[in-house]
């Protein structure tokens, strides 16, 4: 009987959530509205890979770029900013919800003003990862280098605001780290080098040590409110299905052997973050795990409930292999990206990012409340 009530409650929750999330993504909260929870967050600062890169790769010599149409097709003024989707990222919705501004800019954007930099930037670089080899394969900005850019960012603030004001500013900022997928999809599962030295289990521990090193580095620089995103269901990424399935065109389906690796890694990450939070709690830390696996998995498994028509192929091109330069102005693009979970063969659509943001709101609220 108790189980029946629990199941009914779950079904009610998901139905109510789906009804709420069925609003068009452009109706998301604007920074012009009241601040969420009347918070006093000073800035929103982001590290990671293409899931949170708003255009840092635009001026790099790398194939991991998206500063051309059809990327950005549904962004403001149809501008391809370098975001790997048709519109906004989850981080854009988060910063708007907090009430700071509408979009998270790229730190390497040449025209970035001081005020826009001060209120938060993304240091993320598409193709990056925790494994030092991963960004080297793509010639993109590594996470240690992103941390160095953050130190540079602090110095720029100090030169205008002074030391004490900058310290307080950083203490009141919210930090998000989103990386790890490329370490498996681009690196471990694709190139045999790491497989010679690591089992899946030891490679997961290797990555987690780099996660801890990054958080420690952020902590030493004054970060106190940090969320770290886990991995998505990697076996459901269109590119993983296309490259690894025996019948990738006729009979597409998620490949659980890859998604199970993500689940195991996420469980380990959750434990490590909880341990770090416990050891630093008396010093004012808020270190949280941000679960993106469950939201994306649910969107894929129950895609009609979210208003999607397609869950395992991307909107751009065939939707099977296209990403970065393979999704270009000459590619066929579906008429309505909001009907797709994925924009290209790796990255979610703007609508999917909006749904992810909504499902992460409890974590965001925990980070921003005073």
UniProtKB/TrEMBL annotation:
GO molecular function, one term: hydrolase activity, acting on ester bonds
Family annotation (InterPro entries): GDSL, GDSL_lipolytic_enzyme, SGNH_hydro_sf, SGNH_plant_lipase-like
Signal sequence bounds: 1-30
Keyword Signal among record annotations: yes
Highest taxon of source: Eukaryota
Assigned keywords, A-Z: Signal
Keyword Signal recorded: yes
Similarity field: Belongs to the 'GDSL' lipolytic enzyme family.
Protein's name in the database: Uncharacterized protein
Source species: Eucalyptus grandis
């Amino acid at each position: 009987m108790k189980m029946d009530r629990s199941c009914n409650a779950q079904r009610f929750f998901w139905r109510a959530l789906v009804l709420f999330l069925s609003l068009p993504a452009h109706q998301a909260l604007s920074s012009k509205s009241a601040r969420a929870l009347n918070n006093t967050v000073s800035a929103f600062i982001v590290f990671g890979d293409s899931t949170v890169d708003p255009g840092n790769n635009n001026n790099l010599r790398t194939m991991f770029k998206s500063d051309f149409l059809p990327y950005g097709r549904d962004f403001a003024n149809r501008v391809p900013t370098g975001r790997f989707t048709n519109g906004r990222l989850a981080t854009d919705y988060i910063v708007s919800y907090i009430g700071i501004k509408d979009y998270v800019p790229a730190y390497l954007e040449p025209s970035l003003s001081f005020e826009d930099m001060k209120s938060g930037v993304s240091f993320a670089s598409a193709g990056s990862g925790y494994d030092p080899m991963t960004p080297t394969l793509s010639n993109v900005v590594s996470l240690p280098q992103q941390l160095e850019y953050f130190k540079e960012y602090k110095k720029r603030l100090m030169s205008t605001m002074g030391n004490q004001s900058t310290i307080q500013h950083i203490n009141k900022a919210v930090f998000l780290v989103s990386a790890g997928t490329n370490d498996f999809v681009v690196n471990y599962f694709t190139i045999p080098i790491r497989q010679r030295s690591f089992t899946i289990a030891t490679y997961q521990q290797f990555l987690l040590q780099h996660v801890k090193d990054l958080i420690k580095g952020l902590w030493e620089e004054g970060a106190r409110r940090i969320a770290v995103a886990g991995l998505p269901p990697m076996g459901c990424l269109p590119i993983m299905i296309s490259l690894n399935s025996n019948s990738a065109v006729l009979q597409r389906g998620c490949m659980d052997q890859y998604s199970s690796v993500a689940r195991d890694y996420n469980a380990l990450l959750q434990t490590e973050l909880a341990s770090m939070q416990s050891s630093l709690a008396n010093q004012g830390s808020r270190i949280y795990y941000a679960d993106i696996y469950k939201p994306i998995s649910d969107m894929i498994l129950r895609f009609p409930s979210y208003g999607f028509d397609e869950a395992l192929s991307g909107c751009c091109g065939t939707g099977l292999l296209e990403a970065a330069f393979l999704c270009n102005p000459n590619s066929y693009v579906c008429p309505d990206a909001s009907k797709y979970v994925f924009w290209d063969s790796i990255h979610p659509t703007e609508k999917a990012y909006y749904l992810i943001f909504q499902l992460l709101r409890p974590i965001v609220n925990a980070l921003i409340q005073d």
